[in-house]
Amino acid sequence: MNQSNSLKVHIPQKAAYSYDLVVGNGILENADDFVKKYTNAKNFLIVTNEKVKELYGKYLKIDSAKWFVMKDGERYKNFDTLKKILDFALQQKLQRTDCIIAFGGGVAGDIAGFAASIYMRGTDFIQIPTTLLAQVDSSVGGKVAINHEKGKNLIGAFYQPKAVLADISVLKTLDLRQLKTGLAEVLKYAFIEKSCAADLNYRFYDFLNQNKEEIYNLNPEILSKTVSICCSLKAAIVNQDETEKGLRTILNLGHTFAHAIENLTNYTVYTHGEAVAAGMKMAFNLSLAKGFIDKDYYNKACKLIDDYDLIPSMQNFDKEKFYDKMFLDKKAQNGKIRFVLPSENFKAETTSDVTKEQVFEVL
Ligand SMILES: NC(=O)c1ccc[n+]([C@@H]2O[C@H](COP(=O)([O-])OP(=O)(O)OC[C@H]3O[C@@H](n4cnc5c(N)ncnc54)[C@H](O)[C@@H]3O)[C@@H](O)[C@H]2O)c1
Ligand SMILES: [Zn+2]
Question: How do residues 276-321 score in pLDDT, each as one tens digit?
């Protein structure tokens, strides 16, 4: 294998769910050895989409693998595709002791993982994420789901993979907008780093501040390090709170605002990351207004978001409608919107103690 970093995600209550997460440059070609290290499966079902199969299918050589190639797009993360995957698995006589592999972005990861969680009450599952967003976010932590007409990710499960293999060399074919959507989540980790675990100290803000050019140039060493740091921060959180009863909510920094932006524009105008980057700035504005953070940290944070150039020009939203949409967010509880807000340097906390007037101020 080429240079690679291995780190273990360990979920304490469920020792069996401890798994390896391997990040490296050009490691896709060793996927056969990799998957066989983590599962005793005899047969494999690879779930991917047309585009990823076309670009990288030839590098993923796994003996006795069957391919399910779905159409490309978030709108196919639905019941219909799920049924097709399950039908195909049955037709191919996939056993409970076999393994489903997700090969693609977050869409393939979420739907393949959900299929694995219910097929014969659960088969082994391995993630091979191919977008930056999937490598730093959706492939880690075990949330798997499909969309419903009533909303995104409403039908799903917590189902941890046996292993995750992230090859950063595939990121070179992402278009700039897709790279940026992943980078919004990357920056998010810098702003929550100090809340993740006491023993982790990457000084991720400084790292991102110093390495913007290298990241945008896809420098393999810097990119591997970036993905590894994000994964270990997310793993640290998931280790403490797998099912989002507390700490895990801080991963939603910027997301309450982002979901309103996405929802108001029918998920068609801005990418998720663009909405998250804009949402993080709103969260920083709100935090500053509430006196949670000082102006120095506020300026530093906004500067990083601006330097990475993650937010396109945004339309003016009707404030009442925006506020209403925030109630639809899954984090609204008992009629109160729950905000994840920066609380001090590189830390975030959840609070409902925000008035409508204060929200209006930052929109
Ligand atoms: N489970 C979780 O914890 C979690 C977290 C965040 C997001 N998600 C989910 O992830 C999904 C979004 O993920 P996404 O942004 O990866 O979307 P995606 O899977 O649709 O991928 C984005 C686009 O990139 C293409 N692509 C994939 N790999 C490529 C490559 N190497 N080169 C060029 N193009 C490539 C895809 O074909 C697609 O067109 C959403 O459904 C969201 O709900 C889940
Ligand atoms: Zn997100």
Answer: 999 999 999 999 999 999 999 999 999 999 999 999 999 999 999 9
CATH of the domain at 295: 1.20.1090.10
Q: Could you give the angle at the alpha carbon of 226 between the alpha carbons of 191 and 45, nearest 5°?
A: 115
Residue 113 CB–ligand 1 contact under 6 Å: no
> For residue 122, what is the domain's CATH number?
3.40.50.1970
Query: Is residue 80 packed enough to be buried (19+ CB in 10 Å), middle (13-18) or exposed (0-12)?
Result: exposed
Is 0.90 surpassed by the pTM of this model? Answer: yes
The three-point CA angle 246-189-285 to 5° equals: 85
Same domain, 357 and 218: yes
Q: Measured between alpha carbons, how far apart are the two ends of the chain, in Å?
A: 48
pLDDT above 50 (res 1):
no
Any idea which ligand is nearest the CA of 131? 1
DSSP class per residue in 63-75: TTEEEEEEPSSGG
338 lines ligand 1 (CB under 6 A): no
Q: pLDDT tens across 118-160, in order?
A: 999 999 999 999 999 999 999 999 999 999 998 899 999 999 9
**Cα–Cα distance, 236 to 222 (Å, whole number):** 21
- Which among 51, 48, 52, 59 has a CA at the least distance from the CA of 85? 48
- The C-alpha atoms of residue 257 and residue 322 are separated, in whole angstroms, by 8
Boundaries of domain holding 278: 179-362
Q: What is the largest CA-CA distance in the chain?
A: 61
Helix (H, G, I), strand (E, B) or coil at 119: helix
- Among all ligands shown, which has an atom nearest to the Cα of 168? 1
Give 244's contacts (C-beta < 8 A, 6+ positions apart). Answer: none
Report the C-alpha gap between 46 and 322 in whole angstroms: 40
- Please indicate whether residue 138, judged by its CB atom, sits closer than 6 Å to ligand 1: yes
C-alpha 144 – ligand 2 centre gap (Å): 14
The first and second tokens of residue 36, run together, are 């066989």
| Same-domain pairing of 302 and 169 | no
Cα 235 to Cα 224: distance, rounded to the nearest angstrom: 16
